[in-house]
Amino acid sequence: MKRIVVKVGSSSLVDESGSLCRSKVNQLVTQLVYLHQQKLQLILVTSGAVAAGVGALGWNRTTMTMPEKQAAAAVGQSVLIQQYQESFAHHDIPVAQLLLTRSDIEDRKRFIHIRNTIEPLLHHGIIPIINENDTVAVEEIRFGDNDTLGALVSLVAAADLYVMLSDIDGLYTSNPRIDKNAKLLHQIEAITPELWQIAGGNGSSVGTGGMKTKLQAAQIATQSGVNVRIANSNRPNVLQHIIAGNAIGTHFIADTPLKKKKPWIAYGTRAEGSVIVDTGAYEALTKGNSSLLLAGILSTTGDFVEGSVVEICHHEQTIGKGIVHLSSRDIDQLISKRHEGEPLPLLPEVIHRDQLVLLSSKRSVSLCSKS
Predict the structure, then answer these.
(1) Which residues of 182-209 are buried (b: 16+ CB within 10 A; e: fewer)?
(2) Is position 263 within any domain?
(3) CA end-to-end distance (rounded Å), the chain
C-alpha cells in the first residue's frame, strides 16, 4: 500500500452533547501522523462540520431546517479545519482543505482538476482534508453521505486502500445492536444480493450513513480497484492495526479495476436518461464486448443531449452506463423512421464500447423502472 483514503464519521469526532471533541480529533491525528511517518500518502475525508457548527452555536439539531444546517456547516467547517490544522501543526505536517459537491465529480474537467490538485499535495507530504461543501449542496448535487464521498475520492486519487472509520466494528450477519448472535464478517470477496439484505438502515443520530451506505461505498471503491476496510474508530490504534495487516473490521477485496475513464462513467456521473435495449443488444453487450448500436435500442427515457451519460436498461434493470453520441430526440426520431420502414443513414455507434461500462449490481434503478 502506498496511498490511503481515511473517512471518519461525525459520531467518531463528537462528544455526548454532539459538539466537536478535541481529544477525539487529536487521537485520530496521532494515528494519521504515524501512517504519514511510514511514508504513506494520506487523504482524510471528514464529517463533522454541521456537528461542530451546532456545538459552537448551541442550536438544537433535531429542530433545524436545511438552511439552518447549511448555516451551521458554514460556521462548523472553519472550526473543524482549524482543529485539524492545530493538531497536525504539532507534528509539523501541513494540511489542505478541499470542499466538494457531487457536480464537481460529475464534470469530467473538474474531476481531472481535483486529481491534478491532489497529486502535488501528496507529493509534497501535505495531507488533503476533504469534506462535502454542505453550505451550497442541495439534493441534486449532494453525495448523500461521506461514505460515498470517500469512495469517489478513492477513485479520483487512485488509492490503494479506503478505510471507513465509524462507531461500528464492521459488517455483521445481522444488526448487532438487536441480535446478540450477530457475527462479524471479516472478509468479503464479492458484494452479493445477500449482503444487501443484511445491510440495515441509518446508523447513529449524529451521522447520516448506515451500513447500507457503507456497502454502496465499498462497491464503488472495490470495482474501481481499491481495497476497503470498515472498522471502529474507538478501537485503540485501529489504523496501525489495519496497516500491519491485522484482522480488524471487515475487509472488502478489490476487483479488477475498470480501465481508463470507465470508473468515472460508472460511479462519478449522474445519468441524464436511459436507453432501453432488446435481448439481442443485451447479449451482445454482456457477452460480446460490443458497442451499442441503434438497431438494439427499443426506446429512451429522459431528455438528454449528445455527450450525456445515460443508463442502459433491459427488463427494467440497469445493466450499464455510457456516453451517447446521439440525443434522445435524434434516437427517438430514428427509431420512428425504422418502424415506418424508412432507410436509415449509416450511423456511428450510439455508445462506443470504450465509453460504455457494464455494472455488476443487479439492483433496479429508478430511471429504468420508469420505462
Answers:
(1) eeebeebeebeeebeebbeeebbebbbb
(2) no
(3) 44
Distance between CA atoms of residues 281 and 278, nearest Å: 5
State the DSSP code for 228.
E
DSSP 31: H
Q: What is the pLDDT of residues 198-245, one digit of tens each?
A: 876 444 433 334 688 899 899 999 988 999 999 999 999 999 999 998
Strand ranges for the chain from DSSP E: 3-8, 41-46, 95-100, 127-132, 161-166, 187-188, 227-232, 250-252, 274-277, 297-301, 309-314, 317-323, 356-358
- Burial (0-12, 13-18, 19+ Cβ within 10 Å), 289: exposed
Give the span between the Cα atoms of 257 and 222, in whole angstroms. Answer: 8
What is d(CA 226, CA 38) in angstroms, rounded to the nearest whole number? 20
**Phi then psi for 320, rounded to 5 degrees?**
180, 180
Task: For residue 275, list its beta bridge partners.
Answer: 300, 312
Residue 61 C-alpha cell reads as 439539531
Cell of 66: 436545511
Q: Are residues 298 and 207 in the same domain?
A: no
Q: Is 321 in the same domain as 353?
A: yes
The tens digit of pLDDT for each residue in 281-334 reads 999 999 888 999 999 999 999 999 999 999 999 988 999 999 999 999 999 999
Contact 138, 155 (CB under 8 A): no
**Domain end: 230, 257, 284, which one?**
257
Cell reading at 88: 497536525
For residue 303, with 0-12 CB atoms within 10 Å meaning exposed, 13-18 middle and 19 or more buried, which class applies?
exposed
pTM above 0.70, yes or no: yes
The domain of 19 spans 3-257
> Under a CB-based contact definition with an 8 Å cutoff, are residues 350 and 293 in contact?
yes
